[in-house]
Input
Amino acid sequence: MKKTLIVSLVVLTIIILDQLLKVWVKTHMYYGETFGILGLNWAQIHFVENEGAAFGLKFGGDVGKLILSVFRILMVSFLIYMIRKMIKSKEPIGFLIFFSLIIAGAIGNIIDSIFYGVIFSSSVGSGIATMFPEGGGYASFFHGWVVDMLHFPIFEGRIPEWSPISGGQTVKFFRFVFNIADASISVGVAGILLFYRKYFAKQEKQDSKKEDAMSEIPTDPPSIESSELPNEKA
Output
């Protein structure tokens, strides 16, 4: 199977799974509703939305959200350009798959930011959202909120009162709520750092060799001494 086809299948699969789950949660759950996956307390579907940053983080209100959306589009365009170059240079398929996961995750959240405000009614304080509502969506293009739902509170405890650091506070791991797109980006980055760090080392060596080669090229033509010139005939 050609690498281009594998990369395309990875990206499409992640985007489709991410969007199917988001649309189902948005149109079947109340905002803040929670249920256990297979009845488990530490693995939950918990419906929340965020302004667009990963893992429920916020970024600078409406203006910050617009900047983040535009930045993501530019970043994805650059990543697609990079992965096309990597395919042509015959990089390992594992590296390309991890890189594809990052691209797919970024596109998944971009779709929410660009379109969800237009095609969905609001979920906050108005019941279960509907798709393509008669009165229009809850926001304009590029101002949709990203749907998050995956929550894994594996451990929850309380810091002892006598502790000098945050004594008496409740701690939870893992407290973030995220989606398939966020997980895809995280897996892609982790996979590259764990298994393909040598790729970046190789790129640095190639760049340094090019710089050394360029530095050895003389910038001025060699000078010719007068004694080396042929004698003119009298």
In short: The chain has a mean pLDDT of 85.
